[in-house]
Amino acid sequence: MTATNLLQIDKLSKSFAENQVLKSIDLSVAAGEVVSVIGPSGSGKTTLLRCVNFLEVYDGGSIQIDGREVGYVDTSSRKRRGEVDLAGMRAETGMVFQSFNLFPHLTAEQNVMLGLRRVRKKPLKEAREIAQHWLSRVGLSHKADALPSELSGGQQQRVGIARAVAMDPKILLLDEITSALDPELVNEVLDVVRQLAVDGMTMLMVTHEIAFARDASHRIVFMADGLVSAQGKPDDLMAEVATNERLRNFLSRFSATAH
Amino acid sequence: MAGSMGYQLSFNQIWTNFDKLAEGLLLSLGLAFISILIGAIIGLVLAIWYVSAGRVARTFISGYVEFIRNVPLLLLVYLVFYGLPTVVNISYSAPVSFVVTLSLYAGAYLVEVFRSGLDAVPKGLLDAGKAMGLTPWQRLLYVRLPTMTRITLPALSNTFISLFKDTSIASVIAVPELTYGAQWINNKTFRIVEVYAVTTVLYVVTGYAILFGLRLLERRFRVER
């Protein structure tokens, strides 16, 4: 499984000062695959995700999307890409954030349109059509002209998803996208993600929703202490509980919610 | 009615000369408005330069800010109006000289305002801009500056009110703004209490009206943090 992988991560390492957050991560995601990353907090899940679009600069190893090294000109030289080049690489990935991060001065529609206009260079009319299409897909056509401050958390996050997928990214990165939401708003967001999975969107998501990860993803990766501790199809991974104590300890905390 | 106890208030001569105050008030507003515009441009350019520049440029910008902040405005007005033209071969009218002074003065304060405003833009918004593939300049233009503007609006309002009041200092170089108009009427009528009472009311009412308008604007553009 080499040439077919859309995202290929090899021996990735990353430290913050003395603290080595990622030790040596190997992970791949094939086109159309949905991969969930679970694990205790502090295990490096979010850092891993932020390395994929170079929001975090990684120290060692390699991350390739469609065969191109993400942050560096090539894998061997470690020469950083220029800012414009890097922006072009980042446009290949979409990201949805835990805290939504909608631009507060732009309406829902303008939030979705910004990247289409300035990065994809779409004409105004086409950008608006794409934005309206995606806002309708996330059930927010009627909120197109609302500012983020006028939307609920669940609505804001759905705009966040629309903003990311409207760019037609090769892979969508989802960073604990329901963690900041009130429990009753979680499902409206997860439903959108479920639909994207059905449509074949390639996704790498960090999540605490174990039940959701089990039924929505093709593969689950369990991270602990900066390493991939276990991975496999949801049912296979759950079966590993017998032999993997860390996984067992982690999942036991979710036993009330996991079915 | 001129009793021995004194002073009889009479506003008649204030009203007959009110055009001096009205024209002065307009000029004061104009001076403050032009100065905050130019000052905002100075402040913005230097603030953006500061956050992206090396040590030499930062030292230069800090030097400008500290100099202006530690010299009394009155002295700056004298330096620019009397001092500069004798050192270098330029000449300008008193109003132009004052606008230059007040703009430099406002610019120094606004550098600090904008600099902290740029720093206060939530990091998540910049991440969102990066993640969608905006270049650094695009992030500045479409994310950082609009957000910063909303964060700094209250400080901008306060600076504008301060500048409006500071225009009274232009009277020392005979710029016919509001305070100068008041002095002119006083010299002519000797109605010192009346003229300064009316002038004070004009400053307070105008300042309050400006502040009220700007606060409405702030509420409209408030950023959720």
UniProtKB/TrEMBL annotation, chain A:
Keywords: ATP-binding, Cell membrane, Membrane, Nucleotide-binding, Transport. SUPFAM superfamilies: P-loop containing nucleoside triphosphate hydrolases. One of its GO terms (molecular function) is ABC-type amino acid transporter activity. The keyword Transport applies. It comes from the Bacteria. It is a peripheral membrane protein. Residues 7-250 form the ABC transporter domain. The keyword Transcription regulation does not apply. It is found in: Cell membrane. One of its GO terms (cellular component) is plasma membrane. Belongs to the ABC transporter superfamily. This is ATP-binding protein. It comes from Devosia psychrophila.
Automatic annotation (TrEMBL), chain B:
One of its GO terms (molecular function) is transmembrane transporter activity. One of its GO terms (cellular component) is ATP-binding cassette (ABC) transporter complex. Keywords: Amino-acid transport, Cell membrane, Membrane, Transmembrane, Transmembrane helix, Transport. GO terms for biological process: amino acid transport. It is a multi-pass membrane protein. The chain crosses the membrane at residues 25-51, 63-84, 90-111, 151-175, 195-217. Belongs to the binding-protein-dependent transport system permease family. HisMQ subfamily. This is Polar amino acid transport system permease protein. It comes from Devosia psychrophila.
